[in-house]
UniProtKB/TrEMBL annotation:
PANTHER family: NOTUM-RELATED, PECTIN ACETYLESTERASE 11. GO terms for biological process: cell wall organization. It is found in: Secreted, Cell wall. It is an enzyme of class 3 (hydrolase). GO terms for molecular function: hydrolase activity. It holds the Pfam family PAE. This is Pectin acetylesterase.
Length: 392
């Protein structure tokens, strides 16, 4: 009996692995070597890097640039902790990455963008590609040069064909989603005026909310990120002219002034935000929230009430996006973080849907202006199509 169960589970696991392999493909790394001479480097001084799958056919002059996530470092200590990892050095990055979801090259899994030039930019500056500090302390060898790296990457892609782009999307997941928001108009200015440009932020709409202890943890953290990296000069002046630079790291304070069309994908119960903004370890010293943060099904009624209030606060902050047809959104009621780059949540038979619409269709409808696309889900646990993550 036990052997039969084991064989069954092994068959299931093998089937899942075969399915995932059929949905994804590996893409090699490219280093932007000439960026080093410009000081446009990762935290450790190594060149920025990306993975590039070339477009074909009708998509040969269309470009999708997706920035990787990985949170932020807010002081010398936390930046040193990531300097010699893949989040601070291209020397530590794997040579191949798996592409799927919005980066898939199969029409079945990515009907609107499968044949585009698809680029995944590796994250190695620790401040969503906004920093620029000239001085480098020889004791730490920390380079805060994310804004320069952003420009160097775009220029490198321009030299490889993006200068002829008909269509271009600047996208990103998590901290990369914030990159797409904060650099949206900058990207628009860097590519040819004739190119149709839009921006897409997946799980990048981080809100300025107090934690469960009542402290402004994320606001203080973002202020430290901006100060450490010298980001203020690269944040939208439409925001920094009105409020403290740290507050201009929050999308809700910069999105109203962004001129370029923008789409927001986000879970209303974003798992990263629940774990790090609403109930960070410093506000939960007794670990009361630990089980809940790992699995939403283990949340107590009181914790769920607090999370429902967080959702309402998130939706209020999201109102800054507005209702212009150029602004799209897909806000599901899942407990998840980053949904565009994974096939199971981007487009598959069992993918999350809101108003009978998948994330892939909502984004495609918005980009190609087939219909206005602003989808906001009902409250948890109303959506049975959700992929609610369980986290380590």
């Amino acid at each position: 009996m036990a052997d039969a169960r084991l064989r069954t589970w092994l068959c299931v696991i093998l089937s899942i692995q075969i399915l995932i392999k059929s949905e994804a493909f590996n893409v090699g790394i490219t280093y932007v070597q000439n960026a080093v001479a410009k000081g446009a480097v990762c935290l450790d001084g190594s060149p920025p890097a990306y993975h590039f799958d070339k477009g074909v056919g009708a998509g040969a002059n269309n470009w999708l640039i997706l920035f990787e996530g990985g949170a932020w470092c807010n002081n010398v200590t936390t930046c040193l902790a990531r300097r010699d990892t893949r989040l601070g050095s291209s020397k530590q990055m794997v040579k191949e990455l798996s592409f799927s979801g919005i980066l898939s090259n199969k029409q079945k899994f990515n009907p609107d963008f499968y044949n585009w030039n698809k680029i995944k930019v590796r994250y190695c500056d620790g401040a969503s590609f906004t920093g620029d500090v000239e001085a480098v302390n020889p004791a730490t060898n920390l380079h805060f040069r994310g804004a320069r790296a952003f420009v160097a990457i775009v220029e490198d892609l321009m030299s490889k064909g993006m200068s002829n782009a008909q269509n271009a999307i600047l996208a990103g997941c998590s901290a990369g989603g914030l990159t797409a928001i904060l650099n949206c108009d900058r990207f628009r200015a860097l590519v040819p005026a004739r190119t149709k440009v839009k921006c897409l932020a997946d799980a990048g709409y981080f809100i300025n909310a107090k934690d469960v202890s009542g402290a402004s943890h994320i606001e203080n953290f973002y202020s430290e990120v901006v100060a450490t990296h010298g980001s203020a000069k690269n944040l939208p002046t439409s925001c920094t002219s009105k409020m403290k630079p740290g507050l201009c790291f929050f999308p809700q304070n910069v999105v109203p002034q962004i001129q370029t069309p923008l789409f927001i994908i986000n879970a209303a119960y974003d798992s990263w935000q629940i774990k790090n903004i609403l109930a960070p370890g410093v506000a939960d010293r007794h670990g009361t929230w630990r089980s809940c943060k790992l699995d939403i099904k283990k949340c107590s009624p009181n914790q769920l009430k607090i999370m429902q209030d967080f959702r309402l606060e998130f939706l209020r902050a999201l109102s800054a996006v507005g209702t212009s047809p150029s602004r799209g959104m897909f806000i599901d009621s899942c407990y998840a973080h980053c949904q565009a780059g994974t096939q199971e949540t981007w487009l598959r038979n069992d993918s999350p849907v809101v108003a009978k619409t998948s994330i892939a269709k909502a984004v495609g409808d918005w980009y190609y202006e087939r219909i206005t696309s602003q989808k906001i889900d009902c409250a948890y646990p109303c959506n049975p199509t959700c992929h609610n993550g369980m986290f380590d």
